[in-house]
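Changelog note: in this version the structure field was regenerated for every chain. One regenerated record is shown below for reference.
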Amino acid sequence: MTDTARTHGNGNAPRLSGTVRIVGAGLLGASIGHALRAKGVDVVLSDTSPAQLRLAIDYGAGRAARDDDAPALIVVSVPPDVTADVIEAELTAFPDAVVTDVASVKLEPFRALKDRGLDLTRYIGSHPLAGRERGGAISARADLFIGRPWVVCRDEETRAADLALVEDLALDVGAMPLEMTPEEHDRSVALTSHVPQVVASLLAARLATADEDALRLAGQGVRDTTRIAASAPELWVQILGANAEPVVDVLDALASDLTTVAEALRAPEAPGARRVIAETIRQGNDGVERLPGKHGQNRKFEQLVVMVDDTPGQLGRLFGELGELGVNVEDLRLEHSPGAQFGLAEISVAPAALHGATEGLQERGWRIAGATNE
């Protein structure tokens, strides 16, 4: 691969040139296709499901394959249990192409391919940290990767031009490439993605047999912590099985912490019990503070809670008037009040903007439910 395979331009000009072949036309594959097509890149799609393939093509994620296709880059976007097989097939079928995959586990397919004795010089594993609760080509979006990390796993055999090709893929779809080893990647996603899925599912499972009266009290807290519990079980059986060891390490540590808290709560009046509970909450505060926020910053924002009538156009009016006040909305969370015809818009703003936003909105007739520091 030479530098002619890359076009560095400004504005909407793509970095990639030539044809990109995407194997797997589900959510991630079709979303990559949409994003590249929007940049003018020639995208060819392949999928073992004819119906899925036709649907992705109909939605504009790419075109059907031709016998004379000579892709410069191949993106494998298939379930984890067949990722290694498809990578091997694509390396064999297209001996001049660089092959990457977007599976959420990186070490297992790499080891499987190594064990088969394959030349992996042209293979570079990668993983975009993006997704939705819904899957399939019908849920694909061109903006799915904008601002999201895209991990690229190189090794000592990776050629610079090939690495640049995969990084250009990430940049063309709006993501931020980040280099990691497969081991570093899998340990990281075990903590930040895979264990949260297990925890959300376990908590949500408690709701399945809960009394209706209890569910009526559900607020934004339980909705936030169980949102990802709607994910597909079939996919997560594969992901968790492929990354079992680092996931078990985190779950074991979490189970130990839960046991410690439970023991403290069994005797809350015992010496030291309240300290255990307080330290647990404080350590959670410390962890949340380390999470990167907007633009990767660890900035603190103030929370402005505005009551919004449940009628058309109200959110648009609220944002418009915040804009007139010169207030930038850093983040937004909506909470609906059960049985009430209004919702609560929790708006994150810069600390310096809180006072002006509060007074300005009140002058315009908005009801402020609260203002807090995050």
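Spot check on this record: The longest helix spans residues 182-207. The longest strand covers residues 302-309.
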